[in-house]
Specification:
single chain, 165 residues, alpha/beta, 5-stranded mixed beta sheet, 3-stranded mixed beta sheet, 4 helices, 8 strands, 21% strand, globular
């Protein structure tokens, strides 16, 4: 029975590690998308309400516009000659490939000055726990809610299998 419990704990913690690798796709601006805002701080406020991690993606949805990833200096000037990233296909996906700050502006003249710009902060990856004791809770994984539900289901399934034997 003790070995069954140990195996169950091992499967549980390995499942959490596996599911923590999932990334999330964020739709910039929510339902409105990437459009000239009424409030010039709209996108920075939106970004500050979200927790971005490495490998998450940003979906920019827009019509007759574009999106550019730029340096801090270009962000402040609302102008870039050589952006880090440029897309104007109406549905652009940008992968957040490192921790730190990312700067985005519209590539259409005058739109950045009207508030179509955003700074995104990507969090440093969490370090794995040193040693987990039986009394401590599971490590914080940053997994999405649906992934956590899958973990609970998998662990419950394994638990049910061990109870039958």
């Amino acid at each position: 029975m003790t070995s069954s419990k140990s195996l169950l704990y091992l499967v549980f913690f390995l499942s959490l590690h596996f599911f923590s690798g999932f990334s999330t796709e964020f739709t910039v601006g929510g339902d409105e998308g990437w459009v000239i805002p009424k409030d010039d701080q709209l996108y920075n406020q939106w970004a500050s309400k979200n927790r971005f991690k490495v490998n998450d993606t940003l979906l920019f949805a827009y019509k007759k516009d574009s999106v550019m990833a730029v340096t801090q200096e270009e962000y402040e000037k609302c102008k870039s000659v050589h952006p880090v990233y440029f897309s104007n296909n109406g549905k652009s996906i940008f992968k957040l490939d490192r921790p730190g700050l990312f700067y985005f502006i519209s590539g259409v003249s005058g739109h950045c000055e009207r508030g179509l710009k955003m700074i995104v902060k990507v969090l440093e990856p969490a370090s794995p726990p040193q040693v987990a004791s039986e009394t401590s809770g599971p490590p914080s994984s940053g997994a999405t809610k649906s992934a956590k539900l899958v973990v609970v289901f998998v662990v419950s399934l394994f638990g049910a299998m061990f109870l039958k034997f």
